[in-house]
Specification:
The structure holds two protein chains of two kinds. In chain A, the strands form five sheets. Chain A has an eight-stranded antiparallel sheet with strand order 1-2-6-7-10-15-16-17, with helices on one face. Chain A starts with a helix and ends with a strand. By secondary structure, chain A is an alpha+beta fold. Helix content of chain A is about 30%, strand content about 25%. Chain B is an alpha+beta fold. The chains are: A alpha+beta, B alpha+beta. Chains A and B meet through α1, β1, β2, β7 and β8 of A and α2 and β8 of B.
């Protein structure tokens, strides 16, 4: 027994050990789309070769996001949304069915939030210029903001209807214009994940500039998601684990902003004032099965502030929220599992 | 009636000293084989402009590499196994907040100028994604 198979076995093990490598269980690809960085991460069984369809599936998911950008961007003059914005006001216009779907959800959140979220703010968001290249670095003249406010009536909405040949939209006056920046990224993330799943990749993360949709797991282990610190770049303030399908979307005053004469001006505008929201929040993170809904809710909650947000969240059974207040306080709904990483 | 098997005794009887050395070496080889790739820093980064690859950089070769962004020149710097976007030709330095990156899968991007660098390899780090 001292000879023979023991030695052969040992040499086989030695050679196998020296030759082994730990294959990465995830593949990642990135693109600049929708004015932000989009990352797609796909998990695969590390004991198997990387699936041949993985790269093409990720590419198809990016192409789906690019398609939605071409349709819904108000920054691109050739998009369907821009064509609506360029058309005369106070007349019914044909509406692309997919934009109608997104607007249905936008108007629903607008009504639930008492106007804190509004997809019709393009004239004032253009005036502030946070999405310009390069972005604005000082606020617009006060008079122009006042003129915009005067053009609007309280409670007015983008109007939608079912016409004889499809959906239609009406923008009442020049103070209204479509800007789906607060919801279209979430929709695009939902669609990209649907593309991945349709091709058999159900364990993945689609990250549209921090708007995440998570699906499945890493071989039975939950995905670990960090939540950005609102004042410390590259630092995470909290972590949450997700196994299964769930979106995690954050709106904060730190992503697009400028400092002017000592004051911070950020891109989340209060539709009722035409100014950056001063609700006392620095960041809002929403968990919801739909990234589109989470995207809109995160903006609405940010604008509403803590107390009014509680009432909104109570009417959204699928949503859980984490709020970081400007005074350093934190608040979460009971359904938001979180591990705080900063005292 | 046979008692419980004494595996150490069995091992001693069925192997020589050389065999046991061989087993020790093999165990070390397995552990090293598993951990070695994790210890290795990423070696290359890809640079893309408008989502098209324009450059592949060896992170062991230090230098400053200008690329032509949508809004002007951008410099990509490699030093000490790390890479970063140094500057976008604007006083506001848009897009350079990420700083140095070195871990596989990390990305730094200047969105307005359409320049992106990504360290090659699967995702590493404490989080699978960060919501911001």
């Amino acid at each position: 027994m001292r000879e023979g198979w023991w030695r052969w076995l040992m040499w086989v093990v030695v050679l196998a050990g020296c030759g082994s490598e730990v294959p990465s269980a995830t593949s990642q690809a990135s693109r600049l789309l929708m004015g932000t960085l989009v990352n797609i991460t796909v998990w695969h069984d590390p004991s198997q070769p990387v699936p041949a369809g993985e790269g093409p599936a990720m590419q198809a998911a990016f192409e789906e996001i690019a398609r939605i950008e071409a349709l819904m961007s108000s920054q691109r003059p050739d998009s369907a949304v821009s064509r609506i914005n360029q058309a005369p006001r106070n007349q019914w216009l044909p509406l692309d069915g997919e934009i109608g779907l997104v607007l249905d959800e936008a108007v629903r959140v607008q009504e639930r939030s008492d106007g804190a979220f509004d997809p019709g703010l393009e004239p004032i968001t253009r005036l502030w210029g946070f999405s310009r290249d390069p972005p604005a670095d000082q606020p617009p003249p006060t008079k122009r903001i006042a003129d915009w406010l005067a053009s609007r009536q309280e409670g007015e909405r983008v109007r939608l209807r079912q016409g004889s040949e499809g959906r239609e939209i009406l923008l009442a006056h020049q103070g209204m214009g479509l800007d789906l920046g607060g919801i279209a990224k979430g929709y695009a993330v939902d669609r990209a994940m649907a593309v991945l799943k349709s091709r058999g990749f159900g364990h993945a993360i689609v990250d549209g500039g921090g708007n995440l949709l998570v699906a499945g797991s890493k071989g039975g282990t939950a995905w670990r998601i960090g939540i950005q610190h609102p004042r410390q770049a590259n630092q995470v303030v909290a972590a949450t684990s997700i196994q299964g399908d769930m979106a995690v979307v954050t709106s904060g005053d730190y992503e697009r902003f400028f400092l002017y004469q000592g004051q911070r001006y950020h891109h989340i505008l209060d539709p009722r004032a035409g100014l950056p929201s001063t609700s006392g929040l620095m960041a809002v993170t929403i968990r919801h099965p739909s990234a589109m809904t989470a995207d809109a809710l995160s903006t609405a909650v940010f604008v509403l502030g803590l107390e009014k947000a509680k009432a909104l969240l109570a009417t959204e059974p699928g949503a859980a929220a984490l709020l970081l207040l400007a005074n350093g306080a934190r608040w979460t709904t009971p359904g938001f599992p979180v591990q705080w990483l900063v005292p | 009636m046979a008692g419980p098997v004494n595996w150490w005794s069995l091992l001693g009887r069925s192997t020589t000293v050389a065999d046991r050395w061989l087993m020790l070496v093999s165990a070390t080889g397995i552990v090293a084989g598993v951990l070695w790739p994790l210890w290795q820093p990423a070696s290359h980064a890809r640079v893309a402009v408008n989502n098209q690859p324009v450059m592949r950089l060896n992170l062991r070769e230090e230098g400053r590499f200008p690329v032509s962004g949508r809004l002007g020149p951008v410099v990509v710097e490699v030093a000490q196994g790390r890479v970063r976007l140094v500057e976008y030709d604007s006083p506001r330095m848009i897009g350079t907040r990420t700083g140095w990156i070195r871990a596989a899968g990390q990305v730094a991007a200047c969105v307005p100028c359409g320049v992106m660098i990504q360290v090659e390899g699967g995702m590493e780090g404490d989080y699978d994604a960060v919501s911001h």
